[in-house]
Amino acid sequence: MSGDSDRARTPRKRLSPRRRARRIRIAQYVVLGLLVVAAGWGADWSTIGHTFFDPGLIGGTIAHGLWRALWNTIAYSAGGFLIGLVAGTLLALMRLSDVAPYRWLATIYIEFFRGLPALVVFMAFSLLPLAFPGLAMPWPPYGTVWAALGIVGSAYMAETIRAGILAVPTGQIEAARSLGMSAGQALRKVTLPQAFRIMIPPLTNELIMLIKDSSLVFIVGLSAANFDLTKFGRAAANTHVNITPLVVAGLGYLLITLPLSILVRRMEAAAARGR
């Protein structure tokens, strides 16, 4: 009896945090594996292969217009990003200005366009010729797409750029002013170069977001030669009554965004090592 009571009073040895974390991780792997097996067991692979990965349609989609749509997507996104970067820099400087009306205007613009879905902005641009007869954007349809993407991107980039400017140590700005630089010279030669080095990873993320937002350009009306990846994939999928072309178009987006994502991770790792 005394031996049993001694064993009952002896506390059970607790697992160390490392062993507990290992067991939790193993349990997560087991659960994930079971879910994958269950999904694979219940899937109709013949239907999936025919509907989403038809080999004949994959080859036909790649050969008939995919590369042009890929190029159009890159062109739309790059132009919108450049416009957004310039406008976002201006808006960030206005937010940091000592002139109150500049701050108010920049704040209203940023909050307004950050609150609107990108779809609404594209719809507004598609209706501009109705509201202003005779109005025509240059280099159609690129000018319209660049302006819409630039407006959407600038509202987000402005806050990123403002944060980057504020991250520059004030001591360096004061040192530049003590050397005789004007406020504008210190901004151009000291503040902005350092701020943009800090902002490269988040700005690259903004570019990735704009690439995905470029899938909305179908709203402005495009000819077949100006199709982006999404519009091209949808048109081909409707023609063949099969989802395979849309899947191929989605892989086209990955060809653009995956290298950018890898680049962002490497830049962030390099920045962390530098600190």
From TrEMBL:
Residues spanning the membrane: 26-43, 74-94, 115-133, 139-158, 207-225, 245-264
Protein localization: Cell inner membrane; Cell membrane
PROSITE patterns: ABC_TM1
Membrane-protein topology: Multi-pass membrane protein
Residue ranges of every copy of the ABC transmembrane type-1 domain listed in the record: 70-264
UniProt cross-references to InterPro entries, sorted A to Z: AA_ABC_transptr_permease_3TM, ArtM/GltK/GlnP/TcyL/YhdX-like, MetI-like, MetI-like_sf
Pfam families linked to this entry: BPD_transp_1
Chief place of localization: membrane
Record's keyword terms, sorted: Amino-acid transport, Cell membrane, Membrane, Transmembrane, Transmembrane helix, Transport
Protein family: Belongs to the binding-protein-dependent transport system permease family. HisMQ subfamily.
The name this protein goes by in its record: Amino acid ABC transporter permease
Record lineage: Bacteria, Pseudomonadati, Pseudomonadota, Gammaproteobacteria, Salinisphaerales
